[in-house]
Predict the structure.
Amino acid sequence: MELTDLATIQAVLKRHGFRFSKSLGQNFLTDPSVCPRMAAACAMDGTKGVLEIGPGFGVLTKELSARAGQVVAVELDGSLMPVLAETLTDCWNVEIVPGDVLKLDLAALLKEKFGGAKAAVCANLPYYITSPVIMRFLEERLPVSSLTVMVQKEAARRLCAPPGTRACGAVSAAVSYYTNPQILFEVPRTSFYPRPNVDSAVIRLDVLPEPSVQVKSERAFFALVRAAFGKRRKTVSNSVSTGLGLEKSQVLSALQRAEIPPNARAEQLTMSQLAEFSNRLEEIKHE
Ligand code: SAM
């Protein structure tokens, strides 16, 4: 069965009485060139186990099945179960797990399905949960080696923006803390059915064995990052003192010790400067 063929998709979905849900971000890929590229990028390091999020009609799942040893795919929409049973009938190494990726006990699922081995995550992510899904894997330090995911083009730029550049925000800084991010390729809106209003891009986040910078306290570091980027037009001395409820003099001393100009803005700070700023501020708070 050719899963990117629109007539095939429509016939199968009609047979099962399936209706697309906009609120679940159901835009299925119909461009035959996209899934093989995504699956190849996901499995390029010889990954044996892949966790897919939102298999939908199974088009990416099928490509992953051909390249990985084992594929576990989490799908929230129960009405897709009979569809997937039909479209993935030949894929013996695929298991569909019904559930919400934001609510499932992922640590237990990964352990049960892949033992102690690190899995690779691959997904054409529903847009409404892009950042929460990515951050869940990183913050909970789930045993995954990489995330190869399709997201809205703007989100791709933001997520992969290195600290010290204009596009960087709090989420970019968190992504750069845990991973080595890169944009792989863009995918136009014409590659989907139904067609979304925006273009997409595939990104790959390679999870680092250790965070990219050393911080005294992760909690304090991420609180500072959120405060600094929360009011990005302000100088960090203002946004951080207001956001964290600290004396401005304390924040200015931390900036001075970190050798950062007092009028710097969040988007001008590199990852090492953000870490240094946070570490010096922790020092000052405990003096
Ligand atoms: N992988 C398919 C493709 O590329 O054509 C479908 C991708 S579609 C953009 C997103 C999929 O994620 C849909 O199948 C949707 O039902 C599923 N989904 C939405 N929210 C989810 C959640 N919280 N947990 C798991 N799956 C979810």
Observations:
- Residues 6-207 form a domain with the Rossmann fold fold (CATH 3.40.50.150).
- Residues 24-29, 53-57, 59-60, 74-77, 100-102, 124, 126, 129 surround S-adenosylmethionine (CB under 6 Å).
